[in-house]
Amino acid sequence: MDLLGSESVQYISLDSLWEYEKDVDWILACHVETSTGQLLNIHTLYDFCQDKCAFLFLDSTASIGLESGTNLADACAFSSCKGLFGLTGASFVCFNNYLNINVPESFSLSLNNHLEKRTTGPYHQIYSLVEPLRNYAIYRERVLLSKSAFLSLLDTKGIASRPHSEQPLLCTYVPCSIKSLDPSDILYKPRSSLSGSIVCHLGEIWKRSSIGSIYSSLIFEDQE
Fold it and tell me: What whole-number distance in Å separates Cα of residue 85 and Cα of residue 183?
């Protein structure tokens, strides 16, 4: 299977997915896109792949461990950060069945080289996962609490966000500009050109008593 030719890649929006009538080998999707604060419907992608007899590959960096449905993918890749609560720098690839896919003459892009441990692993990043994974249920619950607290704040201010079905746990999109009265707050700057702001819900997971308190310093400029 050769996936290298750019002419073999087609970009399809989720809204027009079922209008695509050509044969498909793979569907590649980002389960949670943090730059837009959007969760894709994994069951829609899965059903489409079943209909097309295609494989599903997910970028699960922002969804692994947090969102359900990752197991529906034939293969997925994710990082040591975001959904796993570790340091950035390590990447992981998981798959249900080994597939011999043609790759360029590249040492780092050869799956076999990694399976046979021919490279030096990102051990510092992997070590950073020991504590989060040992207590993962606790930290995940704190993400849920932070998300819930922020959505409640939006409700009190009358600010609409994405529909529930498109709401990821990791972050929230708001259609207005956000600033903070606290200079120690770190404001997220998404790479997308989408107007509005993205709030990440990972900053409070290490201290349960602080959950929700950070939002008291936020200013929703377009709502004044």
Answer: 24
Nearest to 208 by CA among 153, 154, 143, 130: 143
Question: Does the pLDDT value for residue 92 go beyond 90?
Answer: yes
Contact 134, 185 (CB under 8 A): no
Rounded CA-CA distance 2/53 in Å is 17
* Phi, psi at 101, each rounded to 5°: -105, 130
Domains and CATH numbers, the chain: 6-131 (3.40.640.10), 133-223 (3.90.1150)
Distance between CA 69 and CA 72 in Å, rounded?
6
CA 154 to chain centre: 22
146-159 pLDDT per residue, tens: 999 999 999 999 99
Contact indicator for 14, 36 with CB cutoff of 8 Å: no
Beta pairing partners, 55: 26
pLDDT tens-digit readout, 162-207: 999 999 999 999 999 988 898 888 887 777 777 889 999 987 787 7
